[in-house]
Amino acid sequence: MPEGTVNQGIGASVRRKEDKRFLIGKGNYTDDINRAGQLHVYFLRSPVAFADIVSINKQKAEKASGVAAILTGEDVAADGLGGPICGWVPTNKDGSAPSEPPHPILANGRVRYVGDHVAAVFAETLDQAMSAAELIDVTYSEMPAITDLKTAIDSTQIHDGMENNTYFDWELGDEAATNDAFDKAATIVNVDIRNNRVIPNAMEPRAAVADYNTGDGRYTLFTTSQNPQLTRLVIGAFMLNIPESKFRVVAPDVGGGFGSKIYVYPEEAVCVWASKKLGRAVKWTADRTQAFLGDAHGRDHISEVKLALDKNNRITGLRVDTLANLGAYLSAFAMVTPTYLHGTLLSGVYDIPAIYTNVKGICTNTVNVDAYRGAGRPEATYLLERTMDVAAKQVGMDPAEFRRLNFIPKDAFPYQTAVALQYDVGDYEPLLDRAMAMIDYANFESRRAKSAKNGKCRGIGISTYIEACGIAPSAVVGALGGRVGLYESAVVRVDPTGTISVLTGTHSHGQGHDTTFAQIVCDKLGVGIETVEIVHGDSDRTPFGMGTYGSRSLAVGGTAISKALDKVIAKGKIIAAHMLEAADADIEFKDGKFTVMGTDREKSFGEIALSAYVPHNFPHDRLEPGLEETSFYDPLNFTYPSGTHIAEVEIDPATGVVELVDWVCCDDFGNLINPMVVEGQVHGGIAQGVGQALYEEAAYNDNGQLLSASYMDYCMPRADHFPSLKVENLVTACTHNDLGVKGCGEAGAIASPPAVINAVVDALSPLGVTDITMPATPQKVWQAIQAAQTKAAE
Amino acid sequence: MQTITMKVNGVSTSCDVPDNTLLVSFLRETMGLTGTHIGCDTSQCGACVVHVNGKSTKSCTILAAQLEGAEVTTIEGIANGDELHPMQQAFHENHGLQCGFCTPGMVMSAIELVEKNKNLSEREIREGLEGNICRCTGYHNIVKSVQDAAGKMGG
Ligand code: FES
Ligand code: FES
Predict the structure, then answer these.
(1) Is B45 close to ligand 1, i.e. is its CB under 6 Å away?
(2) Number of structural domains chain B divides into
(3) pLDDT of A4 higher than 60
(4) Is the confidence metric ipTM above 0.90 for this complex?
(5) A15 and B101 in contact by Cβ < 8 A?
């Protein structure tokens, strides 16, 4: 919507309320916070991937200048502290429970990845802590590192008591029916898929400032979290045994998360623990190297995919066998990401009668792997959308038409997939048609020919995706091994003068909730956006909520706000009825006014608010003072955004450099609250997916050393890697939440990698290249061309 | 330890700084100007960009002690009272920021870029911002913001 818009309600591209503080340097990130008398902590990390700790000699370091204390795994064990826990645990296919080996917050006798925490050094300054850490003498007895997914199963056990270095062995779907589909298939398509390991790289590194008040016995933790209430629960109840009421967790401004700031890591817990133990506030801020080594990584799957087609090229069956690398310890959502957030999405936007999948979660000497923007759904989409292209080629169909043929038809909703989910609504063909029109798909071959004249290979790649967002109905979560409920909470607090605070259990770290959520309030109450404040991120102020991830904030948190607003309006009507001496049922609320229906007798929203707090003659038997309402909303289903993304690339065969030359997408996120914010989310998601497809790779060598542990070795997407992105929307409204919204935060990252790789393979197919693994770096592309040409020459 | 005198956001200041203090630490810790951020340890993300004598400079890559007599401008120093700098305003209008962490460095880099050449092509803007990483926006709206600001800054 153009500048100067007056509409501030649902559907308006309102400029963001939160921008100003960031633009003038007045954001308040965790590292901007300091407490009087604070110590700085530096973590000595393991330089080896797999070893027994023979001894730790810290005497010299303890005497170094400025050092207050050095704590190790022995201290953790002596104090009986717990470690981070797994929040969602699926059942093995044989009905047994998965392995959940302990994760000590400081290594106890054994280190399991490069970067594992060996000692925490506390000093007056960070420099002093770092210098002292160098004086700690640790003797390791090294064992061969296990980094390869395929051989990990037959290697030394990384954790005692675990078998085959396998956390779980899980399945979903009907294996017999799927086998039957393959027995009867006219065509069988086989594809090997590798989903590369990537590092989230939120631009703000993780940080924590912890303070213990001996006066009231309360702890305060400021931390970079996407879900401060969960952080409080996990650290308080499972790690340090702190009553929740004695523990305040604040996630102030947070500089991006993308999943990596969902989890509780050892560092935050160590800061809280030490703040009491040492009697001083403790501050920790990761540098980028620590972020590379210690933040949970994403993806890292290998899959064997088999697709069965009948003689009309309709898909009849799909089988996917996946090994998922989960790293050395289990992170909070590590088990659910490759299982219930992956296997359940394997039907994509297609009508597939039989699906079976088996996923094994593997332990290796690498840092933990957990949900990263999209979480399981990008992995599912990548393997399915690559397979769709390979299949189309195998049967000689255009990839767009092969997809169209297999789409779930518009009239088939609600559609029950073969992998547990029930899609409520969707319409996939118009999304495909619009995206094809946007990129002028029909005339692609002439563009290809033009590029060829310049010695370049041009390719086009489609991805038609679906995702399950708005996690999640607590009953479903509970039935599938979740240890939490995934409702969301909201308090709408109307002040006596009519200003409004909305306290939400979600957290904003770039998503623009301050604005989008306020728009819902404006829309419902007819007030100006400047009267609304959105409060999030402080466990002392907000109701218990589950935080922000899984594109859930609007679909679940926004709906909770909407429901609390409904309650405010309902109470306002009773107050108005009392003031206007009318029956409750005769009051209607519209445009910010309570009116006795069919009359001109009315009270403004402000008058009702004031009266709620100055209740001089309220009938107390039926009307309490105050105007504040709470809602805990548990969603009825997941939401199912979908869409089509199309990438066009140009490749220089002499160098292997892939240039992204065009990008279009048409998404269906249901109703949009703020189209400008939605578009921004899509842009960011696409960039992360393109990063994974073309540039990013977390590379470990055989010794378990992370080779890509800095921005010199890990290629981040930059401004000059992109063309202008063309983003459009169509709407089928979600059928089961009040706002008709679906969520948009992860879509770009889910849709984009297969679009890029399909385009790259399409560009190179005239040279005989049939596949390329992510990231399609110049070296890999060049080698693929050489290999194909050598083969052709033979 | 050295005593240095420099102008920060137009105000002259004189301080004792240890020889190994980076400008970014000096700004954040000594001056309390926490708008300038630290996003990496290899001089590659641009979150720390400030202007030193009018030039975009990665403040993680220069020592405070090197700056005797210098004029340093940070994100806190570019608005005119309540009136945002055209670049700040353009980022707001075009949704050029999400989490805001890269934003100060991005804005400072973009200002110098536009001041040097007000008729930048989209390609030139993209190449000019190559030293600043943003993980949130996909750069699309940052580029739009810079184009918009360039117009308002007299392009
Ligand atoms: S902090 Fe990354 S370039 Fe300065
Ligand atoms: S806005 Fe978050 S890193 Fe750029």
Answers:
(1) yes
(2) 2
(3) no
(4) yes
(5) no
